[in-house]
Amino acid sequence: MKIECLICLKETAIPNNLNTQKYDGQITCRECGSLLQVKLVKSKVEQCKVVRAGHPSLSADEVLKAAREAKKEGKRFLRG
Ligand SMILES: [Zn+2]
Q: How many angstroms is it from 31 CA to the middle of ligand 1?
């Protein structure tokens, strides 16, 4: 399965050896290197939060804010 990174908003693959039926731990995004705390139950993401943003020059909050803005912009763009 894959999980959407909260920082770069790209899907990152969860390692095959990880038990997605029940997992509560950290995953590193392969795209941006961010560290995410995830909780998986029955192959679904129950909880996901940023532990450390991959971009070194921005704090997690700043990156999150930027990502949210970008997402909003994208939605607006799609709606025309
Ligand atoms: Zn990422």
A: 5
Residues measured by CB to lie within 5 Å of ligand 1, the ion: 5, 7-8, 29, 31-32, 34
CA of 78 to the centre of ligand 1 (A): 22
* pTM of the predicted model as reported, rounded to 2 decimal places: 0.65
Q: What is the pLDDT of residues 18-37, one digit of tens each?
A: 999 999 999 999 889 999 99
What is the residue range of 70's domain? Answer: 2-79
CA dist 41 and 50 (Å) reads: 18
Question: How many domains would you assign to the chain?
Answer: 1
